[in-house]
Amino acid sequence: MAAPDYGQSLAGFTINLLSTDLARALIFQRDVLLAEILHHDEDLLILRGYHSNWMVHADHTYDHHPLLADTRKQARRGAGVELRLHGCDPDGAAERARQHGFDLLDGPRDQPDHGLREVHIVDADGYVWVPDIPVG
Q1: pTM metric for this prediction
Q2: 77-101 b/e with 16+ CB inside 10 Å = b?
């Protein structure tokens, strides 16, 4: 699908992340989160999983956009943001993350206050992904 057609097809809420290493982002998305890769090239990943679609753009695609400069001011991209994937097995995701050298920030563990089992995984760009499933 042509980029303008894809852009015009989007509705509701979507997420777009910037990445310093799109090849590494592809490994995380595909092999840790088990996301379906709808499109990938040297500039962009388009992903689907867990009833959602999202995108990851290479930093160079934002060379002339103020968001990239703002992102580079931060110690860690995405600090304070949780990207939750409901229905993604946290134990399996944690094991796959370890196998691919990604860091676990917390878990996996049951969170009785949330009614969920979850894990916080830091991807190569510093974004925190939280796969979770209902407990019990």
Answers
A1: 0.86
A2: bbeeeebbbeebbbeebbebbeeee
Output the six-digit token pair for 71. Answer: 């992102």
> How far out from the chain centre does Cα 10 lie?
18
Q: How many CB atoms lie within 10 A of CB 66?
A: 8
pLDDT in tens, the chain (136 residues): 777 788 788 777 789 999 999 999 999 999 999 999 999 999 999 999 999 999 999 999 988 877 787 777 777 778 778 899 999 999 999 999 999 999 999 999 998 888 999 999 999 999 999 999 999 7
Domain 3-134: give its CATH code. 3.10.180.10
